[in-house]
Amino acid sequence: MINKRVVFKSWLVSVSTQLLGHFRARPPCIPPSPARILILKPCCLGDVLLTTPLVHALRHHYPRAHLTYGVGQWSRPMVATSRDLDAIWPIPERWTLGTLMASVRALRQRRFDMVFVPDRSPLLSGLVALAGIPVRIGLDSAGRGWGYTHPVPVVTSVIHEADLYSMLGHPVGVMQIPRQLHFYVPAEAEAEATTLRASLSTGKAAGPFVVLHPGGGANPGMTLHRKRWLPERWAIIADRLIQEHAAIVVLVGASSDQAAIDAVSAQMHMDAAVWVKQWHWPVLGGLIKSADLFLGHDTGMMHLACAVGTPTIAIFGPSDPQMYGPYSPIGTFAWSPTPSSPCFENGTAPVNCPCADQCMRNVGADTVWAKIEKMLERRNWLV
Length: 383
Description:
Layout: H1 4-21, E1 36-40, H2 45-49, H3 52-61, E2 66-71, E3 87-90, H4 97-110, E4 114-117, H5 122-130, E5 135-140, E6 150-153, H6 161-166, H7 187-201, E7 209-212, E8 218-219, E9 222-223, H8 231-245, E10 248-253, H9 258-267, E11 273-276, H10 281-289, E12 293-296, H11 300-307, E13 312-315, H12 321-324, E14 331-334, H13 358-361, H14 365-378
Parallel strand pairs: 1-2, 1-4, 2-3, 4-5, 5-6, 7-10, 7-12, 10-11, 12-13, 13-14
Antiparallel strand pairs: 8-9
């Protein structure tokens, strides 16, 4: 069911911002050695990780510049340990007139020379324009980039979001950015993850260490539990991993994933380890980095698995894996779309699923198992 109010609001924003775009001044020259650079992406976990190829490339392109990342509290852990950044600037995840004007003042005080905005929000476009940052490079979707001096048009063809974000490097001459996400696990977090893995593996067979995340689909802007695969199929996969490969299977999740993990555990016949809590993200990154395989949905944790270099299989339904799938040479996805797929587009989804979750039911356990077998074969884990 199409929300006419949302459609009208989107149309109104597009028309208004396109009109504002007509008053855009001639773009200034790109400075060869900017002293202070800002990257601005408020939310969410996976989206912030998808900006890390751009961040890494900017660090190498401008080795002497001071790089600051503006991000909301929810997504801050994805870049908090980054070696490519010099500072993190906390920004609101929801805006009011008061927080907007306070942010404008804060940006003016920091005197940035250049800003990159890998986001479609017209509000962020206006924010950096009001802040008077001389060179403003950002995505221009249907005229929403009216405040940028160097707007980068959002292409109409289907490309991965990380590739789209990386196109922001083009105006400064960064043309070829390696397709690799980045998440840095500090040594102390890696040591803690090693201890955690040992405790989760106690009494288990010495097979492959496999992390499953059957939850997700929730962030400050949206809750979309229809991204989750069926619990009984997760249970089939977990049981087969233990029975056929003597795998050490760990079900991970946040407290908001407890019900999903309980539903999987209740239908399993074998014994899996469960780790559900509000983790310290670097420790979780270290645990996943040590795994032989990660399985999940279209979530921030799936992108984290790619960022730490773990073989990844993602199960997709309402969103398009061509845009949001594993961004890794050792990542793949399972997707059996319906005629109405994808229904998650431009960061929004209809209130009622147009296919009544058929897109997730279409993904069979045998399909996912075949992908697991290929992954484990490459890792030389065959029992």
